[in-house]
């Protein structure tokens, strides 16, 4: 007998285990909840599915959310199916075996949006421990978007088995967020809140803001609870009085039209409220008549401005924290203030990086002009077109050399050679005949700039051409959620530094630089010492043009390459040279810094209108030149006298 009982127990145990491994049985137990789920009823089914630990549950939940689950109208069995031309390919949810059938005998399950969100929350619990890192990452992002107290335990359970360092750090961060918002113990919540003081991410600030969420209200006296602040009722009297009326703490204001209608409806023997009609032309008499009717209960009471002010002063307008514990809201407020301070400093640093980046671009654009205009005194309106020629040279090289790194290394010296040659040709053919004739030089170079733009349009068309940066220049250096700078801008900054040191070396340490400075200060004396001023002028103009070409390659990686791109930098280039100090390389650097930081600062103050920022910048430059006409770094010695 005992042996028989043991056999029966083993049989029952095996049957229960088999049924526990059968998802279809669980679904049949909750058939109605599966076929017609609601947000209130689906929770029981999901709890049983999660408790079963079946490996096929996540796949079923994904298909259920995707509306790929069908039910056999005859047997009530559930299948995962795809429909093609009224034919279903059915897959058994437990075995995966596939069959086909006509769609007429099946019903597609279509859970609504609310149910799908509940299912998605349950699905996240499985995805947190999924072998695929991408699925785990998607689950974490789902938790981040829709945080809920029920996600805490599954997240904690998945932490120990997490081997990916990045995903593990993300889980720890989300656990900290959930603890701060939904932790059971106040000490744990406060500890988690205080740990966010060094986290400047938008998510951390959102968590703190959610803890500090408030509900506004009005009462006769200050209510109990965690008061955030008492509001000034006179800050917005009209809106606040409407709140009083809505809370039934004050009578509604009677509009003038209703007052007139009430008076007309209560005329008795040519009188209203005892006042003759002839006297109702006076507004004060109309008020007296209406007040008499109100006292008699015939019309709603009249609300004067004095009544409004009195009602507002007697009421208490408040903001009440949704969080009941004062210690938690105090910790959240102190932490959020500390985070906002960090964010402010980070934004200042980010703005500084933006200003430095823009200054680097302006320095690259202006450094060649600092030679041709600063050293030679030639107003070259075609300087921007040399920048454009350099950018198009880089584009042409990329058409031939597909490797962007190699093409960039080829384009930089080639752009210098092309624009150096163009500058020499321009100086020999035009500029040399116009020295000391600034107006004619300006008009001639302006005409050349238009001609060069048209030539570029004829060759390359009017569409913007891509000058693609190498992969190692893609993306950005992310310092924090607030501070980041693209690698291209860093490269332009480095290129600007290289230009600065190379140009200083040429002007200060080479024979060419010595001869350039000699010809600039006193051409006659330089000629008497055996220096050929014509040759030096040609080489100087070519050098400035060549530098503009190399700058064009750098700027082209950042800006669009078009035939008009040079015109976007010519005004800033001249301003940079003039503000910095004509003839000074360090002055050009200072001018680029001033204009770059000034423009970014104005754009930060007025971010929606960049045109206004440029206008204000030009006005500032005009005022600056009025007070310091020789620029930031004024020339000295004989150059200053000239």
Structure description:
The structure is a single chain. The chain is of the alpha+beta class and 642 residues long. It has four domains: 117 residues, no CATH class; 86 residues, no CATH class; 49 residues, no CATH class; 217 residues, no CATH class. 63% of the residues lie in helices and 8% in strands. The strands form four sheets. Strands 4-3-2-1-5 form a five-stranded antiparallel β-sheet. Strands 6-10-7 form a three-stranded antiparallel β-sheet. α17 runs antiparallel to α18 and α20 packs across α21. The radius of gyration is 39 Å and the shape is extended. The protein starts with a helix and ends with a helix.
Helical content class: 55-70%
**Neighbour order of strands in the largest sheet:** 4-3-2-1-5
Count of runs of 4 or more consecutive helical residues: 27
Oligomeric state: single chain
Q: How many β strands by DSSP? A: 12
Percentage of β-strand residues: 5-15%
Q: Class by helix and strand content? A: alpha+beta
Briefly characterize the structure.
This protein is an alpha+beta fold and 642 residues long. The chain is built from 27 helices and 12 strands. The strands form 4 sheets. Strands 4-3-2-1-5 form a 5-stranded antiparallel sheet. A 3-stranded antiparallel sheet has the order 6-10-7. The chain has a two-stranded antiparallel sheet with strand order 8-9.
């Amino acid at each position: 007998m005992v042996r028989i009982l043991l056999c029966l127990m083993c049989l029952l145990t095996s049957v229960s285990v088999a049924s526990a491994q059968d998802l279809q049985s669980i679904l049949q137990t909750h058939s109605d909840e599966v076929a017609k789920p609601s947000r209130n009823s689906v929770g029981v089914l999901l709890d049983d599915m999660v408790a079963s630990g079946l490996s096929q549950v996540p796949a079923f939940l994904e298909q259920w959310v995707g509306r790929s689950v069908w039910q056999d109208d005859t047997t009530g069995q559930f299948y995962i199916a795809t429909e093609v031309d009224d034919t279903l390919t059915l897959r058994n949810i437990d075995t995966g075996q596939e069959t086909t059938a006509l769609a007429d005998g099946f019903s597609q399950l279509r859970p609504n949006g609310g149910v799908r969100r509940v299912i998605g929350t349950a699905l996240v619990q499985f995805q947190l421990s999924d072998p695929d890192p991408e699925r785990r990452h998607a689950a974490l992002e789902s938790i981040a978007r829709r945080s809920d107290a029920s996600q805490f335990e599954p997240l904690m359970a998945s932490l120990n088995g997490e081997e990916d360092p990045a995903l593990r750090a993300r889980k720890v961060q989300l656990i900290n967020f959930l603890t701060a918002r939904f932790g059971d113990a106040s000490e744990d919540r406060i500890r988690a809140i205080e740990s966010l003081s060094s986290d400047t991410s938008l998510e951390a600030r959102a968590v703190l803001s959610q803890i500090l969420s408030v509900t506004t209200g009005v009462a006769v006296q200050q209510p109990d609870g965690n008061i955030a602040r008492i509001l000034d009722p006179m800050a917005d009297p009209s809106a606040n009085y409407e709140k009083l009326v809505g809370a039934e703490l004050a009578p509604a204001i009677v509009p003038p039209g209703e007052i007139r209608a009430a008076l007309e409806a209560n005329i008795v023997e040519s009188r209203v409220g005892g006042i003759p009609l002839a006297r109702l032309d006076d507004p004060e008499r109309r008020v007296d008549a209406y007040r008499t009717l109100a006292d008699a209960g015939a019309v709603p009471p009249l609300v004067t401005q004095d009544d409004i002010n009195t009602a507002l002063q007697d009421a208490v307008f408040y903001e009440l924290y949704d969080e009941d514990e004062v210690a938690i809201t105090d910790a959240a407020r102190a932490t959020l203030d500390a985070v906002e301070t960090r964010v402010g400093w980070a934004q200042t640093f980010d703005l500084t990086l933006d200003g430095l980046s823009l200054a680097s671009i302006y320095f690259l654009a202006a450094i060649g002009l600092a030679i041709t205009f600063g050293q030679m005194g030639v107003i070259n309106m075609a300087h921007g077109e040399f920048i454009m020629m350099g950018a198009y040279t880089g584009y042409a090289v990329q058409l031939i050399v597909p490797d962007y790194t190699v093409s960039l290394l080829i384009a930089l010296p080639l752009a210098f050679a092309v624009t150096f040659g163009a500058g020499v040709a321009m100086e020999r053919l035009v500029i040399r005949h116009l020295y000391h004739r600034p107006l004619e030089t300006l008009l001639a170079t302006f005409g050349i700039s238009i001609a060069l733009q048209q030539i570029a349009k004829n060759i390359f068309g009017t569409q913007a051409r891509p000058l693609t940066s190498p992969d190692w220049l893609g993306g950005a250096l992310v310092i924090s959620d607030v501070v980041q700078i693209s690698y291209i801008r860093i490269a332009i900054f480095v290129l600007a530094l290289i230009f600065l040191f190379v140009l200083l070396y040429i002007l200060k340490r080479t024979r060419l630089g010595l001869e350039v400075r000699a010809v600039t200060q006193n051409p006659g004396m330089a000629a008497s010492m055996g220096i050929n001023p014509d040759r030096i002028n040609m080489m100087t103009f070519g050098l400035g043009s060549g530098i503009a070409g190399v700058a064009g390659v750098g700027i082209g990686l950042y800006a669009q390459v078009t035939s008009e791109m040079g015109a976007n930098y010519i005004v800033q280039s001249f301003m940079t040279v003039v503000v910095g100090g004509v003839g000074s390389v360090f002055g050009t650097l200072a001018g680029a810094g001033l204009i770059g930081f000034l423009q970014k600062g104005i754009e930060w103050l007025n971010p929606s209108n960049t045109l206004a920022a440029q206008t204000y910048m030009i006005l500032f430059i005009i005022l600056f030149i009025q007070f310091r006409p020789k620029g930031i770094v004024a020339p000295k010695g004989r150059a200053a006298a000239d």
